[in-house]
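2 proteins. here.
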Amino acid sequence: MRIASFIGQKGGVGKSTLARVLAVAASHEKYKVLIGDFDLEQLTCVEWSAMRLRHGIEPEIDARAFKSLKKLRKTVSEYDLVVVDTRGLADELTEDVSKESDVVFLPTGTSMDDLRPTLALARRLAKTRSVSNKIVIVLSKTGRSERLIAEAEATIAEAGFDMLNAIWPERDGFQADLDVGRAGSETHNPYLKQTAKAIETAMIALAMGR
């Protein structure tokens, strides 16, 4: 069983969105996937999974709430991939999840308001040897400015962290799909589908150790 976690120091950077995108993409590739939702106040992924079920969208995505990684380990073993969505504020659980994960995705926007806390968290996690080589920064919810994207990429590279070779743009169509239980390349928009495929391929490769 592989574990891919999405963590962050602040909310609103696309952590839960990307967790759902990865889970859907892996399920469409016939992997047996579970989303472990550790944000017990929001339960975004659990509620989205229920919405997906109500709308009859296939494949079904199993999403369950957990308050500890130990509990998750005890109760699940039959999955190929567990996608962990943590709460928006990093804490002791974040570090525990990072140590147990095969890849640790840190989504961030292009602004310094997003990059500073994300890179600070990455540096903190990187002090643990078992985590340092698992960290992957993901540019998420980006606008249409190529300059801002390039500047953010340069900031991440200067900090010395790996970055996913695809970005997740802020688009109304993606949000509309999430609101009814779809995610990523399940969109009907051809342009958005192509965009989603690129980031899905990149994340699955890392999540499944290809």
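next one coming up
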Amino acid sequence: MAYDDLPLGPPLSAPPPPPRRASAASRWIVAIAAVLAVGGALYFWWLTRMPARPASPAPTTATDVAVGTVRPSRQPIELPALAASDALVRELVSTLSRHPQLARFLATDGLISAAVLTVEQIGDGKTPAVPLKVLRPPMRLMIMGTDTGRIDPASYVRWEADVAALTSVRPTEAAQVYVNLKPLFDEAYGELGHANGDFDAALVRAIRMLSDTPEPAEEPVLMRRPAYFEHSDATLRSLRPVQKQFLLFGPDRRARLRTWLAGFAAALDLPRG
């Protein structure tokens, strides 16, 4: 029967009402029930006025350790030996970008070892001229003057292909490939004398080295020397070699590289600051 069909009055054939007089025991039972009902109603009202308590967190398990990290998990791929890893590296990286400058680097041998040496040298403040020899720009550095002058804007363009090649890869996708190949990176890092080393530490050092390169208030002035150029500003002259090289990229390309490196570090949850 639906609630709307319930009768509002007593049934027509209801039994006669009980006697009006009740015993003393009955009156006490009714009084106690009334007190309990009123007390229960007050208690329920008090509960509704209490602020809600946050739910207790569920117990964590071993699989919950990585909750909250954006670092990608390693995908189940079979890794070859380090010495035979070039084919796999080319296959994985070529799916991320078809930039011709990146293809030039992928055509060389010992890719992971070259990448590890590059990162190691940058972290040490050195210019990675040998492992990145294939990416060296064909044009030479020029200044707006004979012996002293600001950098010729055309010299900044020398590095456009290299910057465009790296930034053509999404940092999150680069992070996934790195995680998949990380055992090989760690092995190559160990061959440089870092026994049981974690290559993440080398990445952090290299990114910090470039990120800490100061931004000059004005375009740097260079002085020509017999076989090289030197900054006229003593502060810039005291920088590490790779930082001086980084200044030759120009402000726009430095900003693009810093943004990419920050995204790559964030995708791997690498320590920053």
